[in-house]
Specification:
The chain is α+β, with helices and mostly antiparallel strands. It has one domain. It has helices spanning 2-24, 26-36, 47-55, 87-113; strands spanning 40-42, 62-66, 69-76, 81-85. The chain has a four-stranded antiparallel beta sheet. It is elongated, with a radius of gyration of 23 Å.
Length: 133
């Protein structure tokens, strides 16, 4: 029984680590998806451009209209750069994000369908602490 309990704790620890790693990599995944969609990585060339970069809402795409054209800008101020794309790149980015969400959703459903420890005996066995735990 102790081996089953240790296995369960190990599985739980791995799942928690995977969750935390997923949270940390969200920004990186978004940036990779932007590049895959055709966004260009732009580094400010002067103080005025750096100041504009700092004014953009962090962690999200900002719509900027310049000379009558619409651009979508994802600021990465800590790395002093921005991801910039037009309407076509933005539309492709939305398609890629939708595909990622569907894939993630399917993965989560697959994991929910699998029993973690279907053979556990939830009786009042004393090795579980006398009252089921």
């Amino acid at each position: 029984m102790k081996q089953i309990q240790n296995s369960f704790q190990f599985i739980l620890t791995i799942a928690l680590m995977a969750f935390l790693a997923g949270c940390a990599s969200t920004a990186v995944n978004k940036e990779n998806t932007l590049v895959s969609a055709g966004f260009k990585v732009i580094t400010p060339k002067n103080a005025t451009q750096e100041a504009k970069l700092q004014t953009l809402a962090p962690g999200r795409l900002n719509t900027v209209i310049k000379n009558g054209k619409t651009y979508y800008v994802y600021p990465d101020a800590p790395h002093n750069r921005a991801y910039v794309g037009g309407v076509q790149e933005y539309n492709y980015y939305k398609v890629l994000r939708t595909k990622q969400k569907v894939a993630t959703s399917n993965l989560m459903e697959d994991q929910e369908d699998r029993p973690i420890a279907a053979d556990l005996n939830w009786s009042s066995d004393s090795s579980w602490g006398g009252n089921g735990w």
